[in-house]
Amino acid sequence: MAATLTLTKVSKVFAETKAVDTVSLDIEPGQFVGVIGRSGAGKSTMLRLINRLIDPTTGSISFDGVEITSLRGKALRDWRRDCAMIFQQFNLVDRLDVLTNVLIGRLAEHGFLSSMAMQFSDEERTMALQALDRLDLVPQALQRAGTLSGGQQQRAAIAKALVQQPKIMLADEPIASLDPANATLVMDGLKQINKEDGLTVLVNLHTLDTARAYCDRIIAMRAGRVFFDGTAAQLTDDVVRDIYGTQGLREFNEAVTSTQSIAVPA
Amino acid sequence: MTAFADTPDLSPMQQFEVDYSALRRRTQMGWLVASVIFLAMFTFSAWLGDFFKVTQVTMPDGAREWRWIIPAGIPRLGEFIAKTLPELSWETLSADLANWFWRWKIWLNLLVETILIAFMATTLGVIGGFLLSFPAARNLAPNKTVLWVSRRYLEIARTVPELVWALIFVFCFSVGPMAGVLAIGLHATGALGKLYSEVNENIDMRPLEGVKAAGGTWFDQIRYGAVPQVLPNIISYTLLRFEINVRASSIIGYVGAGGLGQEFREALSLQEYTDLSALFIIIFVTVIVIDYGSEKLRHRVIGLEKGPSA
Question: Which residues cross the membrane (chain B) (predicted)?
Fold first, then answer.
């Protein structure tokens, strides 16, 4: 099930700006990869390109030897199922219960009628409950998603991603809207899935200490380009200053941007 | 931007005062211009609509005099109402009432028909409007062609009034309630489709993105991401439309499309003016009852929405 995700000279141009500029990367199976960089550095765009929520202007993305950029129709939807995506704003349906929100992760397997009737099999419900159980959300299963706290919503979103039985998990600033305690819960959840299921995780972060604490590998982007690619130890103060630029001095102070409730030694 | 350009010799506070008074002047100027344009247009419309017409009226002593049309015409309203009111007296009240509502059996039948026409037409309108409201919403339409076609269809359906659709359908399917159902249903499709699609255009798109990112089709995104968000509004608009459709179906018989309307026509042509007031009371009471009921229902739906989770 594990395979390498390869980006080859991928670019995305929005009107005038190059959001992602000739990015080439290999993401090895089972890695926990953090992507850091200033706002607008192209982190979100890169994840969206991989999930094919947007199409690249040029370049190639392939997974397990399959070219992702040319997928259409059912094959494209299957790819989106295979690379589950988690969003900063959770993107749950507030007015549906948590269980149904998790079952949305099964839609790629459904035909038109069963999907429109919201008919899911017992196996699928079991699968959804198991996923919720891993994230300690079973008591909330029948509550409306909108009534949950931010941290619970993000964990519900992770449960939804899990029932997709993905091959790779993308997370776009998953903890940017959460308080430190919930941020830790969510990051721990991702790390646990990475460890136990051997699932590749690619996560955008805007806090350095979180990246250092959780990621096997850190990729830094600046102005759409990959600026640094290495381990946390290789990420020295000089490199950080270059990533965030001189205007980023405030961001450079890791303690200020920390989302950790407990100090994590770098 | 130029209005807010920095003048280096002013402090930020002074700069704010300058900008603020400029902004206020512009706002006041805007209101003034808009008010003048509005008043001019309103007056012009009133003039076109003969509101300033002066007409010749016959005075009580038989003399003819020129009078402004509004004070001249208002007394005639009382005259008309007086004509439609029956003579009721205490001694013979039951006989007078029976005389007033002399066709009550026919009217009751037609009233039931009227409500059933409204019910069926609303159902058809909801189905058509609901299905078309998604392709007709700018943020949801899969492509420009589908958007264009569904929007034009809804426009045509609602621009043509019910009475005109009824005339067409009476021509096609002959006199009877079926023509009325189709006429009101088609107009309701257009009206509801427009309202629903505007609701759709105001939804939060993130849940739809969440469904899409999990491998959902366009239909999945609509079903799971959009429908739960718009459902309370749809129920509310639907009940409101039912009330409107009852009013429409009570007049549509005027052109032979079923319901109470045909009785209005007959009463007018036979100059049975007291029938008009009887019919008016029947429709008035019915509409009040339906308004009240649907309002209760609407509040219950909204209450249910908020109830369990709050």
Answer: 29-49, 106-134, 163-186, 276-294
Cα–Cα distance measured from residue B179 to residue B175, given in angstroms and rounded to the nearest whole number: 7
State the pTM of this model: 0.80
Tens digit of each residue's pLDDT (9 = 90 or more) over B282-293: 888 988 898 888
The CA distance from A126 to A213, in Å, is: 33
Q: In what order do the strands lie in the sheet with A58-63?
A: A17-27, A5-14, A58-63, A66-67
* ipTM (interface pTM): 0.86
Cα of B24 to nearest chain A Cα, Å: 36
Give the closest-approach CA distance of A242 to chain B in angstroms. Answer: 32
Can you point out the beta strands (E) in chain A? 5-14, 17-27, 32-36, 58-63, 66-67, 83-86, 168-172, 200-204, 217-222, 225-230
Structure tokens at A13: 């141009």
Q: Give the residue among A158, A177, A204 at the shortest CA–CA distance from A48.
A: A204
Would you list the DSSP string of A95-147?
Answer: TSBHHHHHHGGGGGG--HHHHHTT---HHHHHHHHHHHHHTT-GGGTTSBGGG
- Contact across the interface for A81 and B215, Cβ inside 8 Å: yes
Name the percent of chain A in helix, strand, coil, to the closest 5.
Answer: 45, 25, 35
Task: Collapse the DSSP code of A220 into the 3-class scheme (helix H, G, I; strand E, B; otherwise coil) and give the result.
Answer: strand
Show residues of chain A in contact with B306, CB under 8 Å.
Answer: none
